[in-house]
Design goal:
By secondary structure, this protein is of the alpha+beta class. 30% of the residues lie in helices and 28% in strands.
Length: 426
């Protein structure tokens, strides 16, 4: 099979690296890709947000058998619908199902209707009403811009003053653009043992009939050590989550995952692909923080290296609706990904800095924002590289990843030094 992966980031490189191991796969393509994907796939320079351009490409390339649509934006735009209408086989939800990520208000309404545990909330399209509600509830309180905002449209406000300012930013200043026309105001959930609460990302394969959770991962969304600084797309991950147990997995399957799959079916929005559950272990049990309609980034970078089963076989089974027939197996060790970022990220940063790479031991470099310019590897984004290490334990994997990170350099590079430490006493 010839397979094309849509997207440019570390997640897409990680998916390509996993597909490359499959005996079923002949040739890989990536639209548009980066310098890392170019090493194992043919990069295709087509704008995947332009559905007609992708359709034209697909029509001109009948040799491509399978499309993996990964980022949230083309999913929300209906790229899977367009490709399937041409008879192409795809991994990823159609537009109707992708709404579970593209509208937080929709996702909250679905959870309310089907009794899926999540934080209490109200939705507003009026700034005055939202302000009145925020003042009534007081802090801490969480504000979320309704639409897609690159993972940055969520404000966890410790004080009422912060909440008032945040509401103004979202709804009046439109810092997140049209995503802020509607705001979700949520109760701030408390973790069972930690504040802020302990979070886990559980990605799941589903064909709409069966849902199979993958190995768990923990993300680090803030830019600085100790979960300080601004929210980012994710500064590192580790797998598995230390506090995860078989009992928790059963609770989550029974109370969250299966009910979500069934709810989407009941709403005529059957989801096929990777459904991402952002969960929090609270003093009142496991609750949903957010859904994503796709693989997480940088969760995928630590989850897929742990997968023993052929990823292409799983993709095929999801597309054909026979996920129940295959057994999905995982390694018993651990995996850590440390993201190396451009100085200034998640705000403004410079691109085009030359990257030098020394000894990285047995680690894998997953490329995110990289490019080749005049024969040299250069930075081309905020999150540039992920150093991925496997080990018997998180500690072993973490030491390996940090040893390699020290041998990678460019002007103003930075990374968090505490990936893989939290929740250790679980
Ligand atoms: P999201 O983009 O929805 O994942 O939110 C970003 C981050 O905000 C989450 O990873 C949590 O750390 C935090 N967060 C979101 N909603 C809540 C909530 N209701 N209570 C506490 N923390 C939250
Ligand atoms: N790592 C969080 C996300 O992919 O949204």
């Amino acid at each position: 099979m010839n397979v094309l992966v849509i997207g440019n980031g570390g997640r897409e490189h990680a998916i390509l690296l996993a597909l490359k191991k499959s005996p079923k796969v002949d040739k890989l393509y990536c639209m548009k890709g980066n310098a890392g994907t170019a090493q194992i796939a043919e990069n295709v320079d087509v704008d995947y947000m332009n559905i007609d351009a992708v359709k034209n490409f697909a029509a001109a390339h009948p040799e491509i058998d399978y499309y993996v649509v990964t980022p949230d934006d083309p999913l929300a735009l209906g790229l899977v619908d367009a490709l399937e209408a041409m008879g192409k086989r795809c991994f990823g939800p159609d537009k109707r199902a992708a709404i579970i990520e593209s509208s937080k208000a929709y996702a909250k309404g679905l959870m309310k209707k089907y009794n899926i545990p999540t934080a209490e909330y109200e939705i507003f399209d009026s700034y005055d009403k939202a302000l009145e509600y925020v003042r009534k509830k007081g802090a801490p309180i969480v504000l979320k811009a309704d639409g897609l905002a690159l993972g940055k449209g969520v404000l966890v406000c410790e004080t009422l003053k912060q909440a008032e300012e945040g509401l103004k930013e979202i709804m009046l200043d439109k810092t997140f653009g049209a995503a802020g026309n509607v705001v979700v105001v949520e109760e701030c959930m408390k973790g069972l043992k930690y504040t802020p609460g302990e979070e886990v990302s559980v990605l799941a394969f589903t064909d709409g009939k069966t849902i199979v959770p993958m190995i768990t991962a923990c993300d680090h969304k803030r830019a600085q050590d100790g979960d300080k600084g601004l929210n980012t797309g994710g500064m590192g991950t580790f797998s598995p989550c230390p506090f995860w147990t078989e009992e928790l997995e059963e609770e989550v399957l029974e109370k969250i995952m299966i009910p979500t799959m069934n709810a989407l079916n009941a709403e005529g929005r059957t989801f096929k692909g990777c459904l991402y559950f952002g969960l929090m272990r609270t003093d009142k049990g496991m609750k949903v923080v957010e859904y994503n309609s796709r693989f997480g980034d940088p969760e995928t970078q630590v989850v897929l290296p742990m997968l023993k089963t052929d990823l292409m076989e799983i993709f095929d089974a999801v597309t054909d609706g026979r996920l129940a027939d295959i057994k999905i197996e995982w390694d018993s060790g651990a995996c850590v990904c440390v993201v190396l970022a451009s100085g200034g990220y998640p705000l403004s940063y410079k691109k085009g800095k030359e990257i030098t790479i020394g000894d990285i031991g047995g680690c894998t470099l997953v490329h995110a924002g990289t490019a080749v310019k005049d024969g040299k590897l250069v930075t081309n984004g905020g999150r540039v590289l992920g150093v991925v290490a496997k080990g018997e334990t998180i500690e072993a994997a973490r030491n390996k990843a940090y040893a390699a990170a020290e041998n990678i350099k460019w002007e103003n590079m930075y990374y968090r030094k505490d990936i893989g430490i939290k929740y250790r006493e679980g």
